[in-house]
Amino acid sequence: MASAGIQPFLEALDEPTLVLEGRVIRFANAAARKLFGVGIEGGDVRLAIRHPEALEHILPGEPGDVDITGIGQFGRPWTLSIRRIDEQTLLLRLIDRSAAIAAEKMRVDFVANASHELRTPLATIIGYSETLADEADLEPAIRLTFGSTIRSEAQRMLRIIEDLMSLSRIEAGRFVAPSGHVSIGEVVSQAIENAVRIAGSAQCSIQVDVEEGLPRVLGDQSQLAQLLDNLLSNAIRYGCQSGGCAVRVAASADDGFIRLSVTDNGPGIPREHLRRVTERFYRVDAARSRESGGTGLGLAIAKHIVERHRGTLDIRSTLGEGTEVVVRLPAPR
Ligand SMILES: Nc1ncnc2c1ncn2[C@@H]1O[C@H](COP(=O)(O)OP(=O)(O)OP(=O)(O)O)[C@@H](O)[C@H]1O
Ligand SMILES: [Mg+2]
């Protein structure tokens, strides 16, 4: 039986933990009481854990770990750990596997999405180049069209690969705190130059409000430039769809943080998509984003850059009114 000295430690564990003496539950910590009910101490384990598969492993008292789903809640995945303390006593712990399974699903989805995104332009390239190779008497105008489609699809593949490499570089460095002293004003000016180039002939005005005398942030200059490029390119690409639009970039000191925001007055992002737009390859309108050269990685990259800088990224959007992305970076002390 768990001695009084150990009980407070078992009680504090997040994992549902039980101590059995034979079939009787001698101790159940708070997490176990929450899962199986408050009155289970002193009762028979078969009444508390009404899960035939789990009981099949618990009753013989064989030590080991088994993966089991559905204890307490339908479909919830656990590892049931059984340890023998002495002849009479068993220690049972339930380790929640939901997070590990979600991470694994994300990895599998990511590989599937990346393969799909690369396969689509590749299929076009193969189709068009086969026609060019097999049909000697194609009209020159058609040759030119096929050639230029092959080029633009290959460029698209290159963009996806560069973005993926960029994402994995940022992820690989996420535990290394950035050490440059970056002027947000300079990053904003550089990003505006790039944005004016992207905007091209679009009727898009860009307003800049950078507070004077902002302290330099501890950061990675090229990543912060990439962050702002991504936010501005979205504001212009999606915000300027309906002709004239106004984009605003602002930076100010805000309660121990540098607050950086990019606002547009475009169509906005529907509420149900808002939570997901920072996921890799997630696009509200995949066809439209693809048409304008988007890979669906821009906001995922932005989020990872902000996380590496120990900052926060929030997206607020109202349909028909526009979108505001707010980044907060810790200000130097
Ligand atoms: N300012 C915005 N206004 C409306 N929709 C937006 C805005 N910013 C992002 N979105 C939506 O979020 C999606 C994800 O944006 P993200 O920047 O990650 O990818 P992308 O712009 O499609 O491609 P990339 O940035 O990699 O070229 C976009 O496809 C678009 O649907
Ligand atoms: Mg983008």
Q: Compounds present?
A: adenosine-5'-triphosphate, magnesium ion
CATH domain topology of the largest domain:
Heat Shock Protein 90
Largest sheet, strands/sense/barrel: 5 strands, antiparallel
The fraction of residues assigned to DSSP E strands is 15-25%
Distance between the termini: 52 Å
Q: How much helix, percentage-wise, in residues?
A: 40-55%
Work out the count of structural domains: 3
Q: What is the tally of beta strands?
A: 12
For the record, the CATH class of the largest domain is Alpha Beta
Strand order of the largest sheet: 2-1-5-4-3
Overview of this protein structure:
Helices cover 45% and strands 24% of the residues. Strands 2-1-5-4-3 form a five-stranded antiparallel β-sheet. The longest helix has 37 residues. Helix 5 runs antiparallel to helix 6, helix 6 packs parallel to helix 11 and helix 7 runs parallel beside helix 8. The chain folds into three domains: 90 residues, 2-Layer Sandwich (Beta-Lactamase); 74 residues, Signal transduction histidine kinase, dimerisation/phosphotransfer (DHp) domain (Helix Hairpins); 154 residues, Heat Shock Protein 90 (2-Layer Sandwich), CATH 3.30.565. Strand 11 and strand 12 form a beta hairpin. By secondary structure, it is of the alpha+beta class. Bound molecules: adenosine-5'-triphosphate (ATP) and magnesium ion.
